């Protein structure tokens, strides 16, 4: 079993007038397997990103707090809320905008970029919604390459999961595909994996193993991004 430890202090932190961000990777420069982007964004009320392009990238948004309004040039638009995950295949090319749906309350999300399995697919997006109890002391799968367990679809042999683990609870993570690795990000609280302690903003990539256990030393909110490791690890 191998590890990539990415403590909060190792992320690139950026503070703008309307947005506070922390980046774990630089797309096309650093990666953990097929995972190449992991942005932690807090956006002020009424602010956001105007229309901008993407191509041949799987882009997913996990909502931690608040709501985000999404609109793209395929005619799709909608609002995603807390306890939901939106996934988008940019494929041949898409233009979209993302704005905080509230004029007064901040919006907190994680935007995650994964290289696609198949290039130049038709652009698409969809969302997966869940309740808090669905992830309480369990690992809830939200995205998969085959819609297993009624999850949303991602164009990669990747699996996204979320979990809320109460203090002193231990769980086991089992890889969905042999050879995959998983990037575990701690949104809040604290957990221990092997000899690593993860607290708010910390992450640990775990690979070259089929499973591992973790235990919460304080109630923790977690994101799991499991990806093929074909590209290796570059930091």
Write a structural description:
- This protein is an all-beta fold and 235 residues long.
- It has no helices and 22 strands.
- Strands 1, 14, 15, 16, 17, 18, 19, 20 and 21 form a nine-stranded mixed β-sheet that branches. The chain has a seven-stranded antiparallel β-sheet with strand order 2-3-5-12-7-10-13, with no helix packed on it.
- The protein is globular.
What does this entry show, briefly?
This protein has no helices and 22 strands.
Secondary-structure blueprint of this entry?
Layout lengths: L1 E5 L5 E4 L3 E5 L7 E2 L2 E9 L4 E7 L3 E8 L1 E6 L4 E5 L2 E6 L4 E7 L6 E8 L9 E6 L10 E5 L7 E2 L5 E7 L4 E5 L5 E14 L2 E4 L3 E5 L3 E18 L4 E2 L1
Secondary structure tally: strands: 22
Proportion of beta-strand residues: over 45%
Q: What is the CATH third-level topology name?
A: Jelly Rolls
CA distance, first residue to last residue: 18 Å
Order of helices and strands: EEEEEEEEEEEEEEEEEEEEEE
Q: What multimeric state do the chains show?
A: single chain
What gyration radius follows from the Cα positions, in whole Å? 17 Å
Number of domains: 1
Work out the helix count. Answer: 0
- CATH architectural category: Sandwich
Instruction: Describe the main β-sheet briefly.
Output: 9 strands, mixed
CATH-defined superfamily: Jelly Rolls
Q: So what's the CATH class? A: Mainly Beta
Q: Name the shape in a single word.
A: globular
Low-confidence stretches: none
Structural class: mainly beta
Whole-number mean pLDDT: 96
């Amino acid at each position: 079993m191998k590890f990539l430890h990415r403590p909060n202090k190792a992320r690139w932190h950026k503070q703008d007038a309307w947005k506070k961000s922390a980046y774990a990777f630089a797309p096309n420069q650093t990666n953990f397997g097929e995972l190449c982007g992991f942005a932690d964004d807090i956006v002020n009320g009424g602010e956001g990103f105007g229309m901008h392009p993407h191509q041949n990238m799987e882009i997913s948004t996990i909502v931690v707090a608040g709501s985000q309004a999404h609109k793209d040039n395929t005619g799709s638009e909608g609002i995603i809320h807390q306890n939901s995950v939106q996934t988008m295949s940019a494929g041949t090319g898409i233009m979209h905008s993302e704005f905080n749906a509230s004029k007064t309350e901040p919006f907190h999300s994680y935007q995650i970029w994964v290289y696609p399995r198949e290039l130049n697919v038709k652009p698409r997006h969809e969302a997966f919604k869940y309740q808090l109890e669905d992830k309480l002391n369990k690992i809830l799968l939200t995205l998969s390459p085959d819609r297993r367990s009624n999850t949303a679809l991602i164009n990669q042999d990747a699996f996204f999961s979320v979990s809320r683990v109460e203090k002193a609870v231990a769980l086991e993570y089992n890889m969905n595909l042999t050879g995959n690795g998983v990037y575990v990000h701690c949104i809040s609280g604290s957990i221990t994996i092997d000899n690593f302690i993860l607290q708010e903003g910390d992450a640990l990539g775990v690979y070259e193993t089929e499973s591992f256990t973790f235990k919460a030393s304080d109630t923790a909110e977690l994101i799991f991004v499991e990806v093929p490791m074909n590209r290796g690890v570059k930091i």
